Amino acid sequence: ERILREHPSAVCSEDLKRMLSEEAYKRGNVSKAKEYLQSINPDRLRPDLLGKYAELWKSLDLDKKRALLNNPVLFREFVGSVELSKEERLSVAERLSKRGYYADMIRLLDGYEKDKSACYYLGLSYLKTGQRERGEEILLSCPDDRAYVELARLYLNERDEGKLRDVLLMIKNDEVKNEVLFIAGRIFLYSGDYEKSKEYFSSMSDNYDKFFNLGLLSFIGRDYERALKQFMRAYYSAKSPVESSQASFWVYKTYQAMGREDTALRYLVLATKGEGFYSAEARKLLGERVAHRGVRRVLSEGDFPTQANVIKAIRDAGFYHYS
Fold first, then answer.
1. Who has greater pLDDT, 323 or 56?
2. Nearest-CA neighbor of 181 among 200, 163, 202?
3. Better pLDDT: 277 or 12
4. Do residues 66 and 37 touch, judged by C-beta distance below 8 A?
5. Could you tell me the sign of the dihedral formed by the alpha carbons of 219, 220, 223, 226, in that order?
6. What span, in angstroms and rounded, lies between the C-alpha atoms of 273 and 26?
7. Mean per-residue pLDDT for 7-11?
8. Sequence-ordered alpha helix ranges (H) in 28-131
């Protein structure tokens, strides 16, 4: 108690409160146990203590609704046993969806099929729990843009391009349409259907992703002049240091494939000025020491899996030297 009193913001403060609550409960001081436990921010508890925290909350018969709203994942068993407003249901559903608790989301949102704010989560949950027809039915009538993206993924996985095109016709938002076209282009790129991939990327509005991926397809097809044009357009469309490095690196690769080593080297150096996987790779090729910080940045920004897939597509096309 002295540590908690003198250092209320200490890293271990939430763990101490849980320990003090448990000790008070064992001594029979229920009111003190409740006071300590209800003051805890569970997001700051050590992960291995969350289970004990939840058990103690239930043992003390504390408010179920408060528990569910504060930590839906930990207290998802309370879904259906407490009254929630629509806004509260949506808040809980959003957090459950991030952890993949789709069966609980169905229990939470049952009856909200026609609600424009809830239909996406409900339709997604039915799809993820294997109830395809019900999920498709809900998503098709859902005005949420995310529903179109989910339907596109479904039809792409089933290789049903007819239904995919129907979804594209339904989309009014250009950003959402670009997202669906990008997903389709990438899936066909990874599967080696380059003509189909080109068709979808070409249908996108002009932006970095369109130009870069069309550049990759031209590179795979050994049309280096066209690849160079697309990679340069990608470079000038880049909106982040990661994209700048990626485009610069592939301009380097293209010039190198054309036998123009001096020009290629300039773009390899340029690639080091940005961030992410290709910046680190460029520094490595130039003989620079790659700091661990750069590797952590790649992983934290989430660009490594995407770049790994790009490299895999290049290798699958037979261009091992360029990947």
1. 56
2. 200
3. 277
4. no
5. negative
6. 60
7. 59
8. 30-38, 50-59, 64-70, 86-99, 102-109, 119-128
Measured in whole angstroms, how far is the alpha carbon of residue 322 from the centre of its chain?
Answer: 28
- With beta carbons less than 8 A apart as the criterion, state whether 190 and 309 touch: yes
Continuous segment of H or E residues that includes residue 140:
helix 132-140
State whether the Cα torsion 125-131-136-141 is positive or negative.
negative
Element (H, E) at 150: helix 145-157
Q: What are the two backbone dihedrals, phi and then psi, of residue 100, each rounded to the nearest 5 degrees?
A: 80, 25
Give me the mean pLDDT over the 235-249 stretch.
96
Query: Between residues 109 and 301, which one has the greater pLDDT?
Result: 109
The number of residues making up the chain comes to 323
The answer to whether 103 and 124 have CB atoms below 8 angstroms apart is no
Helix axes 194-202, 174-191, angle to 10 degrees: 170
Cβ(119)–Cβ(141) below 8 Å? yes
Q: What stretches of 221-318 show up as alpha helix (H) in DSSP?
A: 224-237, 241-257, 261-271, 277-285, 292-301, 303-316
Flag whether pLDDT at 286 surpasses 80.
yes
Res. 295: pLDDT tops 60: no
Average per-residue pLDDT in the chain?
87
Which of 190, 195, 203 is CA-nearest to residue 157?
190
Give just the sign of the alpha carbon dihedral 80, 82, 85, 87.
Answer: negative
Task: Please report how many Cα atoms fall inside a 13 Å half-sphere around the Cα of residue 98, on the Cβ side.
Answer: 8
Q: Which residue has the tokens 């609704």?
A: 65
